[in-house]
Amino acid sequence: MNDDAVQRLAELIVRFGANVQPGQVVAVGAEPGKEPLARAIAAAAYEAGAKFVDVTYFDLHVKRARIALADEESLDYVPPWYGERMTQISEMHGARIGLTGPVAPGLLDDLDPQRVARDQLPFLKETIEIVNARTTNWCAAPCPTPAWAELVFPELEPAAALDKLWEQILHVCRLDEDDPVAAWGERAETIVGVASRLSDLRFDAVRFVGPGTDLKVGLLPSSTWIAARFETVDGLVHMPNLPSEEIFTTPDPLRVDGHVTSTKPLVVAGNIIRGLRVTFEDGIATQIDADEGADVMRGITKRDQGAARLGEVALVDGDGRIGPLGTVFYDTLLDENAASHIALGSAYALCVGDEDTEAINTSQIHIDFMIGSPEVDVIGVTASGDEVPVLVGGAWQV
């Protein structure tokens, strides 16, 4: 691990991603094995004037013990102080930083998938509520670890695999540019512009067509496409995902029909789901199959009434830095910014007007899975039924 690389990534996350301000409390979420970057983030945050940096580590091995040994009826219990901590950070208008990337791939693979599906930690339902309230400036960013590197590059020796993972993370975060912030500013202008044009077109639905996929996702009357840059209620501009290549909106949870095949594996509750195939009827995921991990996904969609409906639809073009690498990262943050995707579960209210807030999907989960590739075309559908090409061969048509 290169200390300079750790420092540069930490500073980009703090100064540009989360945009930490003087006097803010900063909450950092990590896992054992990510201590060097977490500590560098804490130092960078204090240099930025943070009042206090609170780093918490979620241990997946402790989660494994709970799933394997605890009473089944207790597996969906979340101690109230978890949510209260998040609420306090929101009320204080603090900053939040989360480090992604697996530290123990496959650790839960041999456990009962129904039990695994019941424990959604470290995900908290309050997270979506806080995002919708826009009270915190926040950023999720990748943290390379040896186990993650071996998962992504199994053909390499461990040290070489970790070096290559770091190299690719620095590349997709644009830290190989002379001025990474300026490079991100240029990219953000492009995708924010596309998001604005998509919103102006007021499509009634978007349709995904490709190998194993023909899915029509209805939109709400006020569905607005947003990208890259968020702004808090206090006017703080920040980049919630680093890297970020997606343009997304909130769909109509009652109008999703067709079938879709995932184009990348996804990691859910510590399990790798491969070859996911989902059929939707009237907004509900009525059939879920997969080459691996189908039972986990089926269990998750039974979590509550909204878990089997969509809360997000997102588009990603071919000009980003992640997709062209051809690397499967087994990390939702990176893989979802490599390909268009949809998400089961809770929706983002910030993508709709007040008149449609009651219509969006609500759930205790939010699970993204990738459905895009250069072979999957995205078509906008007007209220009169006309179809307009939006994304063809990975290139914007709007």
Automatic annotation (TrEMBL):
**Which Gene3D superfamilies does UniProt cross-reference here?**
Thermophilic metalloprotease (M29)
**InterPro entries cross-referenced by the UniProt entry:** M29_Exopeptidase, M29_N-terminal, Peptidase_M29
Which cofactors are named for this entry?
Zn(2+); Co(2+); Mg(2+)
Key word Transferase present: no
What SUPFAM superfamilies does UniProt report for this protein, alphabetically? Thermophilic metalloprotease-like
Q: Which domain of life is it from?
A: Bacteria
Keywords (alphabetical) are:
Aminopeptidase, Hydrolase, Metal-binding, Metalloprotease, Protease
A GO molecular function assigned to this protein is: aminopeptidase activity
Tell me which Pfam families the record gives.
Answer: Peptidase_M29
What residue stretch is flagged as signal peptide?
A: none
Q: What protein family does this chain belong to?
A: Belongs to the peptidase M29 family.
Q: Spell out the PANTHER family in the cross-references.
A: AMINOPEPTIDASE, AMINOPEPTIDASE AMPS
Question: What is the official name of this protein in its record?
Answer: Aminopeptidase
Q: Which organism is it from?
A: Svornostia abyssi
